[in-house]
Design brief:
By secondary structure, the chain is mostly helical. The chain is built from four helices and no strands. Helix 2 runs parallel beside helix 4. The termini are far apart.
Length: 168
């Protein structure tokens, strides 16, 4: 992603808000909402989703284990969790990168990019740690061989001196 663009940090909108649109709705209940409520529901859901992803990009353990992150706009639209107030929408202009929510969609893609980079970083960090551990193991194995050779030499010296191992 371009580093010359400032990406806004979105805060998770608490759920539920107490508004009639911020709960699971039947098709009939959805139809009873006015257009402002429908837009608010979709927009708040978009912001909640982005906030979750941004938090995951900073701290992967903060991402709920029962959710899987969307990888594109279609999955973002369909992503839902009634327990967290993440509602789906079908209005594709809501998540259009050139539309009125272009900043939000830029934040969505930046969060995905950051999560991927974090995963790559964690993998390379784990590989580096694994390599370091292998080196330590090899050194310990070499040291064990040296110590066993010394013990063997001590047995030879002790037996030449007339001492038995059992006497010690």
């Amino acid at each position: 992603m371009a580093n010359n663009v400032i990406i806004k940090r979105y805060e998770f909108v608490p759920f539920p808000t107490g508004d009639r649109w911020d709960r699971p709705l039947t098709d009939d209940e959805w139809e009873q909402l006015n257009s402002r409520e429908k837009k608010t529901r979709s927009y708040v859901s978009l912001v909640r989703k982005i906030a979750l992803l941004q938090a995951a990009a900073e701290n992967p353990s903060s991402f709920p284990a029962d959710l899987s992150a969307p990888r594109n706009r279609k999955e973002l639209r369909e992503w839902s969790s009634t327990a967290r107030g993440l509602w789906s929408w079908s209005y594709i202009k809501l998540d259009n990168p050139q539309g009125v929510n272009s900043d939000e969609i830029a934040a969505f893609f930046q969060a995905l990019f950051d999560i991927d980079e974090l995963k790559k970083g964690n993998q390379s960090k784990l590989r580096r740690q694994l390599t370091e551990k292998k080196v330590i193991i090899e050194r310990l194995e070499a040291r064990n061989i040296q110590l066993l050779e010394k013990i063997g030499k001590m047995h030879v010296v002790m037996s030449r001196a007339g001492l038995r191992y059992e006497d010690m």
